[in-house]
Amino acid sequence: QVQLVESGGGLVQPGGSLRLSCAASGFIFSSHWMHWVRQAPGKGLEWVSVINPGGKTTDYVNSVRGRFTINRDNAKNMLYLQMNSLKPEDTAVYYCVRHWALWGQGTQVTVSL
């Protein structure tokens, strides 16, 4: 069926790294802009990053620029978010989103000592 399934979240210490993955199925993945969106505890949704269908155009919210990298593998129907130099304020549930009609279930990222 049509779905997005995130994985790769977990508990990491400040300064550490995680790589989130999103497996897409049931639609033509390579035709769609894809986003990562996060929601911190007690806060609203925050857009994090976007990538175009071909993977050549990306953008980031200022707070993660230079630390996070979005990329995709259209042959595998996969979206990724490499997160480096993680900070406690990066703690959130991270969602993979197909522009803007389809959301995954989210994966929890916790940055703490």
Note down, in words, how this protein is organized.
The protein has about 110 residues and is an all-beta fold. The protein is built from no helices and eleven strands. The protein has strands at about 5, 10, 20-25, 35-40, 45-50, 60, 70-75, 80-85, 90-100, 100-105, 105-110. Strands 2, 4, 5, 6, 9, 10 and 11 form a seven-stranded mixed sheet that branches. A four-stranded antiparallel sheet has the order 1-3-8-7, with no helix packed on it. The termini are far apart.
Write the layout of secondary structure elements.
Blueprint: E1 3-7, E2 10-12, E3 18-25, E4 34-39, E5 45-51, E6 58-60, E7 68-73, E8 78-83, E9 92-98, E10 102-103, E11 107-111
Parallel strand pairs: 2-11
Antiparallel strand pairs: 1-3, 3-8, 4-5, 4-9, 5-6, 7-8, 9-10, 9-11
Gross morphology: globular
**Number of helical stretches of at least 4 residues:** 0
The largest β sheet comes out as:
7 strands, mixed
Helix- and strand-based class?
mainly beta
Please state the CA-atom Rg, rounded to the nearest Å.
Answer: 13 Å
Write down the overall mean pLDDT. Answer: 97
Oligomer: single chain
Tell me briefly what this model is.
The chain has strands at residues 3-7, 10-12, 18-25, 34-39, 45-51, 58-60, 68-73, 78-83, 92-98, 102-103, 107-111.
List the defining traits of the structure above:
0% helix; 4-stranded antiparallel beta sheet; globular; mainly beta; 7-stranded mixed beta sheet; 113 residues
